[in-house]
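Quick start: what a row looks like.
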Amino acid sequence: MFKTLSTFLLSLMIWQTASAQNNNISDTLICYLNKNNVIVNNKDSATYVLFVYPHDLTVNRKLYPFRQYYLNGKAKSIGFTSAHSPILTLEGPLINFFPNGHRQSTMTFKEGKMFGTVIQNYASGKLYAVQEYDPSNNNVKFVECRDTSGNVLAEKGNGKWVQLDENYTKLLRYTSVKNGILGIIWHPIIDTTRYAYYDSTGPVITQPYTIPSYIYNSGTQPYDFDTFLDNNLFYPDEDVKKKISGDVAVTVIVEKDGTLTRLRVTKTPSATLGEEALRLLGLSSPWTPGIAVAGGPPARVQIDILVCFRLSNSDDKLAKGIYPHAYLSYLTTGKEVKLSADSIYKFNKSPEFPGGQDAFMKFLFSNIKYPRNDRENGISGKVIVEFIIEPDGSLTNIHVIQGPSQTMKDEVIRFIKLSPKWKPALLNDKPVRANYKLPVSFSLNQQVINFSN
């Protein structure tokens, strides 16, 4: 039924649009817009093109047919607006498409508000969800939901409902649905295709929400990984005689119970130093395991540990360790210490937005937007976003730790991605990778916004 209805609507719109073009093509409005739906001056800055045609006298003198096209020439949207303007006031049927040509959604508008049946699809073209909108009381009834393979998750308003990312390709979380109403508690879905691989024991997470950590309690006081290395190191005599020092990189899996398995040396200055690094890690007591998603259970997590062997001028035998998201100090001997490009460090000088905090506040207020639905529904609160500032100042690994709503989280991520390069953190006057957390507060009493370092 839905497919037949959508086909009819699409055919009707195409006919109406063609009719309008033939009547008076000179009155057609053409605009280039970017991904934020802002008009731009040229095609190079655009994400899509908007055509607003003159009245279609054969159907309705008050409506203007419009079409949006991706730059690849494929249709983005087909519908009607009540104004001959690039600011669309939607009226009547609307069909949206993915860039690959598959239909994204079919819906109907009345006086700019969505009503009736809304059909949404995955980017593959398969059915994702069916909802019913009632604008008179802002009520939404969740009717049907399917997974990416087409299996029915919810039917007739009962079952399980999944939420997708903005590209309609990735499952983010799920909740229950009963009598058309969504449950309150959402559960995360681990993306094993991107953040994990499988071995004979099961999935291994490579980009966890929190990484494993090491704290050993000797019975008198806890001590960290550096202290553990210092207390247990045996520097091979052969390497002492040959004055061999350097960094041994070891890949390990921290199991759910904190034990280390699958230890593998990936880089070493000598075979004996590699063996000593493996011996040291083999003596390690259980770690605090990592987790894959916020609030999730312990997970099997792969990390890279860098055991750094150094010989001082007095031939003291010491080693220091470093693993992602922590800097455990090196022993410096007056010589230059080579820093790992893959690790995150503590620093002598903090990273900084170009121009300082005042410039950042100006950038913030100029670019961030309060999500319309959240403002209308009275939703406010703080979004905490975390990212890595690379040695060249670029921002990577951008992700949200917490936030009041998905739309606020998405808005903050969009904003951070607009940022120019920062001034990187410095360790001994050398740029290094640094982890950075940024709280952004949305307040209903202001457009946005507060910011704290």
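That is the whole record. DSSP finds eight helices and 31 strands in the chain. The first helix runs from residue 2 to 24.
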